[in-house]
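Lecture notes, unit on protein representations.

Consider one protein chain, 314 amino acids long.
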Amino acid sequence: MKSFTITQSDAGTRVDRFIQKTFEKLPKSLMYKEIRKKNIKVNKKRCTPEQVLREGDLLELYLKDDVLEEKEKHYDFLKASTDLDIIYEDENILLINKKVGVLCHPDGRDYIDNIVARVKRYLYEKGEWEPDNSAFTPSLANRIDRNTGGIVIACKNSLALKEINAKIKSREIKKFYLCAVHGKPEPESATITAYLSKNESTNTVTVSDEPLEGYKEIVTKYTVLDTIGDASLVEVELLTGRTHQIRAHMAHIGHPLFGDGKYGKEKGRYRQALYSYKLTFAFEGESALSYLSGKTFEAEDVELIKDFRERKFV
């Protein structure tokens, strides 16, 4: 005899399809026979093969153990790390503090362990997501480069992903970064505007003070938080979101990020001192995620702050 409490990921599945995908040695003919004989029940009552299971339903199978051998499942994401620094979680989203050096998505070299794979494993092991019985795959609404740390938004369902993507596009999610730069920007707080062009072949950008053909406007707001020697800790709010905007814009005004091998002084290094440390949800109008509006979430124990205070950038 075996019993199952139906999870959210299995809700909406027919009784016969749930049983077929769970037990590889149970013949269809025997399954239908045992349903008719009331040896397979839902919530202690007789069921039908086409009955749709709901979250919390109790499915019981009073059959011999030799036909109740569950299918062995093999998923690559189960090889991913369980190290997931969750800042916030509800039924729709996860806010994850991605550490420097970890990929958001798989690439040609690192296929198995990345943030999206860790999220899949986490939700699968919680019973909130079943890959064989879900049209939706947990997804990230934003991404951060391997060598930058910070807050990543993971969505648990298609509605949340659609809403978050729309809010990012309409600039209703405010993103704040910390960076350590050479020198001290003057004035200590300003909103600066320039124009940026991306070279796809080299994955680098060029910044101009004047609008040129093919260049897009960038707007960056910065505030100096602290200065030690020739290093300054700066908070940056992106008012536009372009490729390498913070790194290239700060370098353009004479204050490149420490460790920036593309736009800074340390050529060949790719551990730029940059961290996406805070998000504010500033939603306009009503939506399924309106409950998040006005809330701010901040990463804790940001290594960049520790390094700055320990004078590693002096």
